[in-house]
Amino acid sequence: FWGEFGLGPRPRVLEIGAGCGWLGLCLARNLPDVEVCMSEQPAGLEHLYRNIELNREAGLPVDSVRCAALDWADLASAEGLLSERWDLVIGSGPLYS
Question: Is the distance from CB of 48 to CB of 20 less than 8 angstroms?
């Protein structure tokens, strides 16, 4: 599947402005060979993390999902996240606020 898009067998996906995590969780649940990092402003991380945990508790295939803080007003604070190699960057309404 991923070869059709020029990606390797286990692509790394960064979701920006993940909010509640709908897009990243759907991607991980339907394509379990993908590694997903969902990013959100620090104030929204607790809600995002809880949604990941609810999916795990329900037995859904989201073991390759993680979340991280990404505040666009302070990109230096996310230097580690932004220095990683991402095969795909996605967003679903990342400019909400």
Answer: yes
What proportion of the chain, given as a percentage, has pLDDT over 70?
93
Q: Which of 15, 9, 13 is nearest to 33 (CA)?
A: 9
Query: pTM (2 decimals)?
Result: 0.86
Going across the sheet that includes 35-40, the strands are 65-69, 35-40, 12-16, 88-91
The b/e string for 36-72 (b: 16+ C-beta within 10 A; e otherwise) is bbbbbbeebbeebeebbeebeeeeeebebbebbbbee
Please check whether residue 13 is in contact with residue 87, taking contact to mean a CB–CB distance below 8 angstroms.
yes
Rounded (10°) CA dihedral 57, 84, 15, 12: -70
Residue 27 structure tokens? 């991607």
The answer to whether the CB of 6 falls within 8 A of the CB of 16 is no
